[in-house]
UniProtKB/TrEMBL annotation:
Highest taxon of the lineage: Bacteria
Name of this protein: TIGR03086 family protein
GO molecular function, one term: metal ion binding
Pfam families: MDMPI_N (PF11716)
Organism annotation: Actinosynnema pretiosum subsp. pretiosum
Amino acid sequence: MELIEAHGRAMNEFDDRVRRVRADQWELGTPCAGWTVRDLVDHLVREQLWAPELLAGCTVEQVGDRFDGDRLGADPRHSWVLAASAAREAWIEPDALAKRVRLSSGEAGADEYGWQMTLDLTVHTWDLATAVGADRQVDAGLAEAVLAFAEREAGAWSGSGLFADPVPVGADADAQTRLVALLGRRP
């Protein structure tokens, strides 16, 4: 699966789960240590707000603290929709994937950044669904594509604190189960 298709599917999967969050569920805990549902969605909103800036050539220093703090306000769903729409538009611009972006970790190709964003959307779809009791199953093709990326990068992430240690699963586990386990979740 190509990146732009995978990213679109991941955005749709996360969007679907955000729309399932009931008013009484925003303070529930998630599989992400110390994060509530609100914290998790806020994290993804802030990530989406960064994407258009970085893809436009801005540096981390130029963006500064513009997206720090609570970005959800009184209407978390609406905040998600606005941020996701702006990010998706930036990703589907002609030649977006041919660009270089300056991340906090250094310069990278936009395609690498896009896969990182797609992975985050996918695994946090599972986290959000788990927290609110929604369907945790994501598109099988998306899970396979993101797993392939995660397996290539897992060595670089080891010990970084980005993810908990991998959780063992059976050799016959499906792609989604292997993905969430690789990223330290108990499927």
